[in-house]
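Changelog note: in this version the structure field was regenerated for every chain. One regenerated record is shown below for reference.
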Amino acid sequence: MTEDKANGNEQFEAGTADFTAYQQEAAHDKKETKKEKAHKKTKTEEQLEKTEEELLELKDKHIRLQAEFDNYRKRTLKERMELLKTASESVLMSILPVIDDFDRAMQTLDTVGEESHIVDGVKLIYSKFQDFLKQNGVKEIDAKGQNFNTDLHEAITKIPAPTEELIGKNVDVVQKGYCLNDKVIRFSKVVIGE
């Protein structure tokens, strides 16, 4: 039994030594895992920061894209509105010589002084034609007796002013000018007093 005791003691001591070695190894592993965990935390924090930066960058891109689209939408809407306003410009410009002929006809009818159904019919057509122009945004530029304005008038010639008040003003209108929705489609041709 003594031999058994001695063997048992040896095994106990060997087991204790192994256990002690195991404990030391486990403690060493714990230190490494703490270091690894600390290192992993910093890696995780770095990834988190990187992800947050990417998120902020994407948000900024998104906001800029929305602003660009909004500006594009507003610009195209404005262009479309302007196109609709001036879409009929070429047709209305083609009608302007007819308006001039009507004006001459009305002046001739006023000098004749004859009252007939024909004169009444022409006056009726003329008034309807003027209403049509107003409905389409065409306005006559008032030029006679006004100060000369290069934005609205085109000078044909200069003559001596009949009165002091007409110096630098439009003495006569050779051809009427017209605006389409505040855009000049034909300048008034005028004679300026000097």
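Spot check on this record: The CA atoms of residues 46 and 170 lie 79 Å apart. The first strand starts at residue 138 and ends at 141.
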